[in-house]
Write a structure and sequence with these properties.
11 helices; 4 strands; alpha+beta; 320 residues
């Protein structure tokens, strides 16, 4: 994507803005036209500040208020000066000069101020010269200029919104990818740990000469259950949950964990908080059977149920 510095893009309009009053300045008697001088000082500052100063696209509100005041002051001062010297040739820059300031104000995302300023300019000139001012003093050109600026302002605002949405989507996508990669690495580490235990155990079973000892049988059951957890539990197996399941099984508790997709919409942080709450609730369990599920399409994300054979009421029943 090609980008152009705002300062570079403003150079040509700024040169045009500075050129506008040249003809009037060189008319005889300029050094006695004090009201026009004041109008020019206001104009030079407003044009320079609006076109070249302030970082970013959005013009500060106080500067927009200044520009609105300038759109009232500049034509009023020039008209008063014309009446004093009785010469309507002076100050011919004021209509387009005000239009330049208002157009730049609109482009820098202060369209309301530009519209109010344009209305003020129209009112002042029509009151002074009548409806014929639209064609005789350059109002038509000023109108086109400011309206073009308003159109550009809307286009820039729309492009800025779309750009921000794209950036948000990009950040969200990168975050999701990072979460998936982190979850994948953790599962790989867990699986590597299980295989690190399973491979020596399988070797021991292979090398055994007679019936398996009780210790080997128990170890084989635990490894088999852990491998099954990694297949069925998937996203429900963070480090805390894996340690808790291991604790329960060492106590002889039968543990079943089923990931049915209920936590897919959660971020990694939200998922960890949910699983940690489940782990905290399981601390009261020392026997029986525990079932941990994440059903899809429900209002809740996770169910934790702990039962004891022969006991009607569950020891623990949670929906998180």
């Amino acid at each position: 994507m090609i980008s152009i510095s705002r300062i570079v893009a403003s150079i040509i309009p700024y040169i045009y803005a500075m050129y506008l009053p040249v003809q009037s300045i060189f008319l005889p008697g300029f050094n006695t036209r004090y009201l026009e001088m004041i109008a020019l000082v206001i104009y030079f500052y407003a044009a320079t500040a609006t076109l070249l100063l302030f970082r970013g696209l959005l013009l500060p509100r106080w500067q927009a208020f200044f520009n609105l005041g300038a759109s009232l002051a500049m034509p009023s001062l020039v008209l008063a000066q014309r009446d004093i010297v009785d010469d309507h040739a002076i100050g011919s820059w004021v209509v387009m000069g005000t239009a330049v300031v208002l157009t730049a104000t609109a482009v820098r995302q202060r369209a309301k101020f530009a519209l109010i300023g344009l209305a003020a300019l129209l009112t002042i000139l029509i009151v002074e010269y009548g409806q014929g001012a639209i064609t005789t003093v350059g109002l038509a050109g000023a109108l086109v200029f400011v309206m073009a600026g308003l159109a550009v302002s809307r286009g820039i605002a729309r492009a800025t919104r779309e750009s921000e949405k794209f950036k948000e989507k990009e950040i969200e996508t990168r975050s999701k990818i990072a979460e998936l990669e982190a979850a994948s690495r953790e599962r790989q580490q867990q699986l590597s740990q299980v295989l690190g235990i399973a491979v020596p155990l399988l070797s021991a079973i292979r090398d055994s000469q007679g019936p398996l000892s009780d210790d080997l049988r128990q170890s084989a059951k635990l490894v088999e259950a852990t491998l099954r957890d990694n297949l069925r539990g998937r996203d429900l197996l963070n480090r805390a949950m894996s340690n808790e399941i291991q604790r329960l099984r060492n106590l002889g508790v039968d543990v079943l964990i089923l990931d049915e997709g209920g936590t897919q919409s959660l971020s990694a942080k939200e998922k960890d908080e949910l699983l940690n709450r489940a782990v905290d609730s399981l601390q009261v369990v020392t026997q029986g059977r525990v079932t941990i599920r994440s059903p899809k399409g429900e209002d809740f994300r996770l169910t934790v149920v702990a039962t004891i054979p022969g006991q009607a009421q569950p020891v623990l029943s949670l929906r998180l």
